[in-house]
């Protein structure tokens, strides 16, 4: 295996599937099966899920709520998604542990780094809920922080797109697809990979990020085996970009865009 221990970041919106709100059971089971297949290979898997399908903290101020209160509401949304994924994984026979950044002892363990690492070493899938446990920090930041703490080999950001582009490829037919790109180039080009705090954490700790299409069956497994899927962001300036226009890309490679 190319990667022994991974941190998989999933967005809450991805769990909606074709719905406008909430959790799509088919999408949830699809993700659970993908994670099970990777864990069966002996890869240690940790997961962070967003809560945007239920509530985002930044929405709070728009409806007159206190931002800090809204962020805690968003953390609870991530716990709901984490509980759903845990249930789906256990339905497939996968041992899991849900660790929360805020204390909710009735449904999950408190986050303790050594305990999380021990669970991973025992082959359990570890889900980190409630972000960092602090307001003003996104789940992207939580993913980067937890990945660094557990000494993951890579952050895999599963999205609905097949990698990083210079622009929206659905609007710009000359959008450039980056197969490999350095942290430095992402900063200079102003590309939207993660929020700046999360991205800087990865850069300063030399933790690579791979952005890939999680909705394509088997992509996660191919990634951990070493196939070049999606876009790799690393310290190395590999200078390798693929300028692929929409008509040059294989049919179906961008069939599931935002």
UniProtKB/TrEMBL annotation:
Pathway: Pyrimidine metabolism; CTP biosynthesis via de novo pathway; UDP from UMP (UMPK route): step 1/1. Its EC number is 2.7.4.22. GO terms for molecular function: ATP binding; UMP kinase activity. This is Uridylate kinase. Belongs to the UMP kinase family. It is an enzyme of class 2 (transferase). The keyword Nucleotide-binding applies. HAMAP family: PyrH_B. It comes from the Bacteria. Keywords: ATP-binding, Cytoplasm, Kinase, Nucleotide-binding, Pyrimidine biosynthesis, Transferase.
